[in-house]
Design brief:
The complex is a heterodimer.
Chain A lengths: L9 H15 L3 H20 L5 H14 L5 H44 L4 H39 L2 H14 L6 H10 L1 H7 L6 H10 L9 H12 L4 H27 L11 E2 L8 H36 L1 E2 L2 E2 H15 L4 H9 L7 H10 L9 H10 L4 H13 L4 H11 L2 H29 L2
Antiparallel strand pairs in A: 2-3
Chain B lengths: L3 E2 L8 E7 L3 H9 L7 E7 L6 E5 L2 E5 L1 H4 L2 E7 L6
Antiparallel strand pairs in B: 1-6, 2-3, 2-6, 3-4, 4-5
The chains are: A mainly alpha, B alpha+beta.
Chain lengths: 459, 84
C-alpha cells in the first residue's frame, strides 16, 4: 500500500479498490464477514471460558415448557391475564387516592382565587381547564402505568418476551408482520406512544412500519376506564359479563391489527425490504434495580411527561370551547350539532364524536368531555353509575350506542401524544397522516356497518 | 454430498454451513449472525406453532423462519443426540 501519502484522488482510489476486489474474486462482503468471524473465533478461543453446562440445561428445560405445543399458549394467556388483572386491581385504590388529593388542592385553589378577586375567566381556564384536566389524566394514568410497566419490564428482563414473539410469529407472518409485533402490542396496552417507541426492536423496515401504524388498535390504559365503564353500563354490572364484553372489543382490536397489517404489507408497504431473525437470549434472574429504573424512568415518567405537556393546553382549549357561548349555545354544543348527522350515521351522536375529537390530546378525557357536553356544564365532571345510566338513556342512548362507542374507542385515531411519537420515530409526515387516517376509516366503517345491521334487524 | 436447506435440518441435528443464497438485507443479516461457510449450526427447537425454528449459532439461540432458513445450505454432520 505505497499509495498512502500521495495526493488522494478519489477516482484513483476507487478504481484501485475495484481492481483489488476483482483479484480477490467472489463477494467481498462475504469474505469480510468470514474474516471477521475467523478472527473473532480465534480471540474467543483464547479468552472466553464456556459457562457450565447446567445453565444451558435450565434454559432448555424452561423453553421446553414455554414453547411447547400444549402449554406455550395457555401459559402466555395466563401471564398476560395476570399482568392485566394486577394492573387493574392494583391501580384502583391509588387512583382514587390521587383524585381525592387533587380535588382537595383544587378546592384550595378555588378558595384562593375567590379571596384574591381573580377574574372568573382566568380561574376557569387555569383551574377548571388546565389543572382539572392535567390532574385527571395523571390520576387515571399514573397508577396503572406504575404497575403495568414494571411487570412488563420484569417479563422482558426474565427473557420471557422473546419466547412470546417466537410462539406467535407464525400468525404475524401470515399477515406480513413480525412476531415481535406481539411485544409492541403488549406495550401498547400500557400506552400506545410507548408501544410505538417499542417498535424500534423490529429491525426490518417494513415490519416496523406495520407495527407502528397498527399499534393504536391495541387499547391503551387511557381507554380502558372508558371501555370498562361502557361495558358495565351495557351489561348492568361489573361482573364476568362486562369482562367478556371488554375482552371481545380487545379481540376486535387484534382482528383489526391483523387485517390492516395484511392489507398494508400487500399494498403501500409492498416494496420495503423485509427480513426476519429473532434472538432468544438465555433466561436470567431479574435485575430488580434495572427493572425499576427502566420501567419508572424510561417508560412511566417519559409517557407521563408527554401526556401532561399535551393535556395542559388541551384543558384550556376544551374549557374555552365549552364556555364560549354564541347565540345561547356553547361552541361545544354547536360543534356537536354540526357533527350530529355523521354521529347518527355511525350509531353515535354529535356529542360523542365531538368528545373523541376534543379528546385527541388524551383518551382519558373523552368521557369527561362527553358528560360536560350532555350536562352543558362548563367543566369536566364525574357522576355515579346510576345517574349516568339515567342521563345517557335520556340522551337517546341504547345498547348499540354503548357498543359502538366501545368499538370506536378501540379503533379510532391515535391520541396526539402517539401521533407526535409516530412523527418522531418515522420522521415522515406521510406515515403520520396515514397513522391517523387508517384507524379513522376503520372505526367509522365498522361502526357504520354495525349500525346498519342493527337497524336492519330492528327497524 | 447432499446439501440441505437449514429449514430441513431436523430438530436435534447439527449441520455445517456451505453457502448462503439470500440477497440484500436478509443476506447481510444472516452473515452478521455468523452464518458464514464453515459455521456449525444446530436445530434446537420448533416454536409452538411449528415455525420459526430456533438454531444454536455460535453459542446464541436465534430463531429463523422457513423463508430465511431455506436460503442457507448446510451439510448435515450429526444426527440427534451426539452434539453440543
Amino acid at each position: 500500500m505505497s499509495e498512502i501519502g500521495l495526493p488522494l484522488d478519489l477516482h484513483f482510489v476507487l478504481s484501485r479498490a475495484r481492481k483489488c476486489g476483482e483479484r480477490l474474486g467472489g463477494d467481498v462482503h462475504d469474505r469480510i464477514a468470514a474474516a471477521v468471524y475467523k478472527r473473532a473465533e480465534m480471540l474467543a478461543a483464547r479468552v472466553v471460558q464456556t459457562p457450565s453446562e447446567r445453565a444451558g440445561e435450565w434454559d432448555a428445560r424452561l423453553d421446553d415448557i414455554f414453547t411447547s405445543r400444549a402449554l406455550g399458549y395457555p401459559i402466555m394467556l395466563l401471564l398476560l391475564g395476570m399482568v392485566f388483572w394486577l394492573t387493574l386491581a392494583g391501580a384502583n385504590v391509588p387512583s382514587e387516592l390521587l383524585a381525592a388529593v387533587f380535588l382537595d388542592v383544587e378546592g384550595r385553589l378555588t378558595a384562593f382565587c375567590a379571596a384574591h378577586a381573580v377574574p372568573p375567566v382566568v380561574h376557569g381556564i387555569l383551574v377548571e381547564g388546565v389543572y382539572r384536566t392535567v390532574t385527571w389524566v395523571v390520576a387515571v394514568m399514573l397508577p396503572p402505568m406504575a404497575i403495568f410497566f414494571p411487570l412488563f419490564t420484569l417479563l422482558e428482563d426474565l427473557g420471557y418476551l422473546p419466547r412470546v414473539a417466537f410462539n406467535l410469529d407464525r400468525f404475524f407472518k401470515a399477515a406480513g408482520a413480525h412476531g415481535k409485533q406481539a411485544l409492541t402490542m403488549g406495550m401498547g396496552l400500557g400506552c400506545n406512544a410507548a408501544g410505538v417507541v417499542a417498535c424500534r426492536i423490529i429491525e426490518s423496515p417494513r415490519e416496523r412500519l406495520v407495527a407502528t401504524l397498527t399499534n393504536v388498535f391495541t387499547p391503551c390504559n387511557g381507554r380502558f376506564p372508558t371501555l370498562l365503564l361502557l361495558a358495565s353500563l351495557l351489561t348492568g354490572g361489573s361482573g364476568p359479563a362486562a369482562a367478556a364484553v371488554v375482552a371481545g372489543v380487545v379481540l376486535l382490536g387484534v382482528a383489526a391489527t391483523w387485517t390492516v397489517s395484511f392489507v398494508l404489507t400487500r399494498s403501500c408497504l409492498r416494496g420495503l425490504p423485509s427480513s426476519f431473525a429473532l434472538e432468544l437470549p438465555p433466561y436470567r434472574p431479574p435485575q430488580w434495580g434495572r427493572v425499576i429504573v427502566r420501567a419508572a424512568c424510561d417508560r412511566t415518567l417519559v409517557v407521563l411527561r408527554r401526556a401532561v405537556t399535551v393535556a395542559a393546553p388541551a384543558g384550556a382549549a376544551v374549557w374555552l370551547v365549552a364556555n364560549t357561548h354564541w347565540g345561547g349555545v356553547s361552541l361545544l354544543g354547536h360543534l356537536a350539532g354540526v357533527l350530529d348527522p355523521l354521529g347518527r350515521a355511525i350509531g353515535l351522536d354529535g356529542f360523542i364524536v365531538a368528545a373523541f375529537l376534543l379528546g385527541l390530546p388524551a383518551n382519558e378525557i373523552v368521557f369527561p368531555i362527553l358528560l360536560m357536553g350532555y350536562l352543558a356544564t362548563g367543566s369536566m365532571v364525574e357522576i355515579g353509575l346510576g345517574d349516568l345510566r339515567t342521563l345517557l338513556l335520556s340522551r337517546g342512548w341504547n345498547g348499540l350506542t354503548a357498543l359502538n362507542m366501545m368499538v370506536f374507542s378501540v379503533l379510532h385515531f391515535p391520541c396526539a401524544t402517539t401521533l407526535l411519537t409516530i412523527l418522531k420515530e418515522t420522521g415522515s409526515c406521510r406515515w403520520t397522516v396515514l397513522a391517523a387516517a387508517i384507524p379513522t376509516l376503520v372505526a367509522t366503517s365498522v361502526c357504520f356497518a354495525t349500525t346498519q345491521v342493527a337497524r336492519a334487524l330492528n327497524p | 454430498m447432499t446439501l440441505f436447506g437449514l429449514h430441513e435440518l431436523p430438530v436435534g441435528c447439527t449441520g455445517e454451513v456451505v453457502a448462503v443464497r439470500a440477497t440484500g438485507p436478509t443476506r447481510r443479516r444472516l452473515l452478521d449472525l455468523g452464518l458464514v461457510p464453515g459455521t456449525r449450526v444446530k436445530a434446537v427447537r420448533k416454536s409452538a406453532a411449528g415455525d420459526p425454528v430456533a438454531f444454536r449459532i455460535r453459542g446464541a439461540l436465534v430463531a429463523l423462519r422457513r423463508e430465511e432458513g431455506s436460503t442457507v445450505l448446510v451439510r448435515p454432520i450429526s444426527m440427534p443426540g451426539g452434539d453440543r
